[in-house]
């Protein structure tokens, strides 16, 4: 319904927007799109509903979305309720045994199941998994010292995800995995999304976050860098333009592109329907990273 003072769009505009989507629907039909939905972009429930609808839309028009979710803010709030002070080192949560239990309960038990339920309510068919299910992800301790049970991905078993998407399901993946002894590890969700995109040779890796994309000055959205190749992305990290939580994002984009993913995007999860804008419109949105400038 139109709000007061909102101009009605002409029939011509609506038809143009709809028909602009057709070449993208044709191009990406049957292709895997890995979407990482970050905790920072999950806080608003009406925005969350739009992200869910966009993912269901993609699946309905023949794309193969896989959703990897974070949930850092929700883990913090549960740690707070339990009187445990969250601690971070270089953007990674310091994860002792008690924190690991909370991370697993919150990500696998709450956030994952909530997203699965919302997708199902929106008419999709979602299946929730963590790295342990079907041996989807193997883990080892991260190289960073003093972070406890923070893990790195040792391998991804793409078959389980391929079987699910083939059967019409939308996999929803939490970033908890185990080593061969069964010890659970807490893995950064961006890293998991990048490794899954690489293992499935995805068309796109899309990271939804709480900024317009990669910015020259991270406080100024008008400094958005719309496109870059791997080399330029590495330079931005070396120069310190990319810092904090943006470092694991750019790193996982670069790693996935080097392994064959066609394009990686960092987009604003706070903007309503940013996923649809990125995938189905000529202009796109946010920052796109490609393997080399020749692939633009
Ligand atoms: N060059 C940059 N451009 C945009 N954001 C940046 C940049 N450098 C650092 N950042 C920070 O990275 C944050 C996104 O990472 P993070 O908070 O971990 O998000 P998420 O919870 O979605 O994974 C931004 O909110 C911003 O503060
Ligand atoms: C090792 C590590 O830091 N793991 C993250 C996993 C969740 C995550 O990545 O959530 P966001 O995407 O919302 O930041 C954590 O414990 O917060």
Automatic annotation (TrEMBL):
Pfam family of the protein (one): AA_kinase
Function: Catalyzes the ATP-dependent phosphorylation of N-acetyl-L-glutamate.
An example Gene Ontology biological process: L-arginine biosynthetic process via ornithine
The organism of origin for this protein: Myxacorys almedinensis A
Positions that bind substrate: 71-72, 93, 186
Name of the featured protein: Acetylglutamate kinase
Cited Gene3D superfamilies: Acetylglutamate kinase-like
Aspartate/glutamate/uridylate kinase domain sequence ranges: 32-268
UniProt subcellular location: Cytoplasm
PANTHER family per record: N-ACETYLGLUTAMATE SYNTHASE, N-ACETYLGLUTAMATE SYNTHASE, MITOCHONDRIAL
EC number: 2.7.2.8
Keyword Endoplasmic reticulum annotated: no
Similarity comment: family membership: Belongs to the acetylglutamate kinase family. ArgB subfamily.
Pathway annotation: Amino-acid biosynthesis; L-arginine biosynthesis; N(2)-acetyl-L-ornithine from L-glutamate: step 2/4
Phylogenetic classification of the source organism: Bacteria, Bacillati, Cyanobacteriota, Cyanophyceae, Leptolyngbyales
GO molecular function, one term: acetylglutamate kinase activity
Record-marked site positions (Transition state stabilizer): 36, 249
Swiss-Prot/TrEMBL keywords: Amino-acid biosynthesis, Arginine biosynthesis, ATP-binding, Cytoplasm, Kinase, Nucleotide-binding, Transferase
């Amino acid at each position: 319904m139109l709000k007061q003072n909102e101009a009605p769009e002409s029939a011509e505009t609506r038809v143009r927007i709809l028909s602009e989507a057709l070449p993208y629907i044709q191009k990406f039909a049957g292709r895997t799109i890995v979407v990482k939905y970050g905790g920072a972009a999950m806080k608003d429930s009406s925005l969350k509903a739009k992200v869910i609808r966009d993912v269901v839309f993609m699946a309905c028009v023949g794309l193969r979305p896989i959703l990897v979710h974070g949930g850092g803010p929700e883990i913090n709030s549960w740690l707070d309720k339990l009187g445990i002070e969250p601690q971070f080192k270089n953007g990674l949560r310091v994860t002792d045994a008690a924190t690991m239990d909370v991370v697993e309960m919150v990500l696998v038990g709450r956030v994952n199941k909530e997203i699965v339920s919302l997708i199902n309510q929106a008419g999709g068919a979602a299946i929730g998994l963590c790295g342990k299910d079907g041996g989807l992800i193997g883990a080892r301790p991260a190289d960073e010292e003093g972070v406890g049970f923070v893990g790195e991905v040792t391998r991804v078993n793409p078959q389980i995800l391929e079987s699910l998407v083939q059967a019409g399901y939308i996999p929803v993946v939490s970033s908890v995995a185990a080593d061969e002894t069964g010890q659970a590890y807490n893995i950064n969700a961006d890293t998991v999304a990048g490794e899954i995109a690489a293992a499935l040779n995805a068309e796109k890796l899309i990271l939804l976050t709480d900024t317009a994309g990669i910015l020259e000055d991270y406080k100024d959205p008008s400094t958005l860098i719309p496109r870059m190749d791997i080399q330029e992305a590495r330079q931005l990290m070396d120069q310190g333009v990319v810092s904090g939580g943006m470092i694991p994002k750019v790193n996982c984009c670069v790693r996935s592109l080097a392994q064959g993913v066609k394009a990686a995007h960092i987009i604003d999860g706070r903007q309503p329907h940013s996923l649809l804008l990125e995938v189905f419109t000529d202009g796109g949105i946010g920052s796109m990273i490609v393997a080399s400038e020749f692939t633009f």
